[in-house]
């Protein structure tokens, strides 16, 4: 079974305005809402690829009901813990020049809620895949991902996609795969990475700290996969950027799709590249057809 965890989900309100005028009345050219959260995005892309997963996390209030209803309509199984406060609302504003995000305030999560969540991971099997992704609300300990990993069987495949202290603590427990971008690597190691050699070395440094494999996104410059034995460089297929929101989550979902189909991580890599790129070229998350249409444009070489 594949499980995705979203500790800090949201309703994402997407807005498009050609020119945003600060301090003035602005009229939307387009606006729509979608359930957001990195784990939820992964579950949705997997569903688009006909791969089942179970979404875990916390939801509350009318916004939480919206997320649960949406996933039910999407036929995605969920097992959320109910909170008293409302799930947050995020703003994602796109103009002709910039993409701007405003993160909403997270609801309070009690220690009892956390313990209820941890119990769900005591039943995970060694053949399951767990995607731990996204930010950690301030009311939860930054060691939450590490606490979860400690409960899992040793051979369970854990994918960790977060940043800051939750990433540091989770990494210490050992994971199957991490997916930083080059900027997050610079932030983590507190140093500038000036070329591909330095980026690869930083990825290998992550391996030494507990990540068995490392997938590094470089945006329009492609990506790098560092396995236990090899380093692979993948291109970024050409296309018109519509929105980068969810592209990283789609990349994770593409890799998990390959794993679910019994492929090696190296073979799964191309599905990750195609999925992330297809989302970047789309309104919303990639479809299977969108991902599949890019596969023949993917070039992966050993470094």
Helix-strand topology string: EEEHEHEEEHEHEHEHHEEEHHHE
**pLDDT averaged residue by residue:** 95
Main sheet properties: 10 strands, mixed
**What Rg, in angstroms, do the CA atoms define?**
19 Å
CATH superfamily: Ribokinase
The helix content is 25-40%
Give the CATH architecture.
3-Layer(aba) Sandwich
What does it look like?
Belongs to the carbohydrate kinase PfkB family. It comes from Fusobacterium necrogenes. GO terms for molecular function: 1-phosphofructokinase activity; ATP binding. The protein is globular, with a radius of gyration of 19 Å. With 303 residues, the protein is α/β, with parallel strands linked by helices. The mean pLDDT is 95. Strand 11 and strand 12 form a beta hairpin. It is built from 10 helices and 14 strands. The strands form 2 sheets. Strands 5-4-1-8-9-10-11-12-13-14 form a 10-stranded mixed sheet, sandwiched between helices. A 4-stranded mixed sheet has the order 3-2-6-7. Helices cover 36% and strands 25% of the residues.
Keywords:
single chain, four-stranded mixed beta sheet, 303 residues, nucleotide-binding, 14 strands, alpha/beta, Tagatose/fructose_Pkinase, 10 helices, globular, UDP-N-acetylmuramoyl-L-alanine:D-glutamate ligase, ten-stranded mixed beta sheet
